[in-house]
Design a protein that fits this description.
With about 350 residues, the chain is of the alpha/beta class. It has one domain: 3-Layer(aba) Sandwich (Rossmann fold), CATH 3.40.50.1820. The protein is about 40% helix and about 15% strand. It is built from 13 helices and eight strands. An eight-stranded mixed beta sheet has the order 1-2-4-3-5-6-7-8, sandwiched between helices. Helix 4 links the parallel strand 3 and strand 4. Helix 2 crosses helix 7 and helix 3 packs across helix 9. It is globular. The N terminus is likely disordered.
């Protein structure tokens, strides 16, 4: 998600208004020393996924396959399907997934199209898959239907996710209702991203690029993942924990198939339009199962006001947990902050049990 926020929209707006577009991003493969550093880091710091974890490739109704993970568990209190954010993966979120397993949940995951081990573009594996956000919602709905048929738990089925994953969950609820889900637990959902210009200008500029036939092009200054992306990253935007932030880079260095590049024009426009759709969506407003939303007080990636308004003003079934000290990247935060997210999940589960 962060590459969409850190100046790309502003640069495209500048180009559309007659300024000079950014130079194409230089792509650099990691050096042998960086590979060794990444391997050593993961050997010492990586939390493994739950012991029973397995991945399955499931045919996606829109074409290709979805990678769906699941860790079967005897007599679990419920099942959670986790949908990662943009550039993320269950491997990166393993701290959370392992903790949820310890808390007694049967834990699973979904890679959205264009991410992880799910279907990718043929022309550029790392490029965002589409600007049609209904498709991401359909992937969430299909994953819920699949997990419902194979899970061991007789308890609630919770669909959880963060950032772009949270957006896709809410979009699925708006479009299909996700009939198998008993509740939604969305963290720092990207209802609307923080933009580098007023929204109408962004829509005009990026929409112009899409209409001009450049929808699938990377936004100006964007491109495939490069080892420089994380070497020069400002950690204070995302957890202020360089040791934990490096986990994403380490995974991308050692597992190239997980890499996700910058965003395309069509995806950037699609995110904004989909968020606007959800803010006025009557079906989402009428969603009648419990929804829990975690908002981070120090978030500079997504608009907290939009997420809070959607939850507290538009959806009768939604309740907010506000974590003042948290940044956008919850599952690489320090442990006390992570524990507040897990406490919010426990509280949400109590709400489901009381239904």
């Amino acid at each position: 998600m962060r590459r969409f926020i850190t100046g790309s929209v502003a640069l495209l707006v500048l180009a559309a208004c007659g300024g000079q577009p950014a130079e194409p991003k230089a792509v650099r493969e990691p050096t042998p020393d960086e590979v060794a550093k990444a391997e050593a880091f993961l050997a010492e710091n990586n939390t493994p996924l739950p012991e029973a974890w397995r991945f399955e490739q499931v045919n996606f109704t829109d074409g290709g396959e979805l990678r769906i993970g699941l860790a079967p568990k005897p007599a679990p209190r419920g099942t959670i399907i986790f949908v990662p954010g943009y550039t993320s993966s269950p491997e990166l979120a393993s701290d959370f997934l392992a903790r949820w397993d310890e808390m007694g949940f049967e834990v699973g995951s979904l890679d959205l199209p264009g991410q992880g081990g799910s279907v990718r573009r043929d022309d550029d594996r790392q490029k965002t898959y589409t600007g049609d956000f209904e498709l991401y919602g359909r992937a969430v709905t299909q994953a819920a239907a699949y997990v419902e048929t194979v899970r061991q738990s007789e308890g609630p089925l919770i669909i959880a996710g963060d950032s772009f994953g949270g957006h896709s969950i809410l979009r699925a609820a708006a479009d299909s209702g996700i009939p198998e889900a008993d509740g939604l637990f969305v963290m720092v959902p990207a209802v609307q991203p923080v933009l580098g210009a007023p929204r109408w200008i962004v829509k005009w500029a990026v929409g112009g690029a899409v209409k001009a036939g450049r929808g699938s092009d990377y936004m100006d200054g964007q491109g495939p993942w490069s080892a420089d992306d994380f070497a020069n990253y400002d950690y204070t935007r995302c957890g202020d924990r360089p040791d934990r932030n490096f986990k994403n880079a380490a995974l991308y260095i050692t597992k190239p198939l997980l890499r996700v590049g910058g965003v395309s024009n069509e995806w950037g426009l699609g995110m904004v339009l989909s968020g606007e759709n959800m803010m006025g969506n009557k079906a989402l407003a009428a969603f009648d199962r419990p929804v829990g939303m975690v908002i981070a007080g120090q978030d500079v990636i997504v608009e907290n006001k939009a997420a809070d308004k959607l939850c507290t003003k538009k959806m009768d079934s939604c309740e907010v947990t506000f974590i003042e000290e948290a940044t956008h990247c919850l599952y690489i935060e320090d442990q006390p902050t992570q524990d507040k997210v897990h406490a919010a999940l426990n509280k949400f589960m109590m709400r489901l049990d009381a239904e």
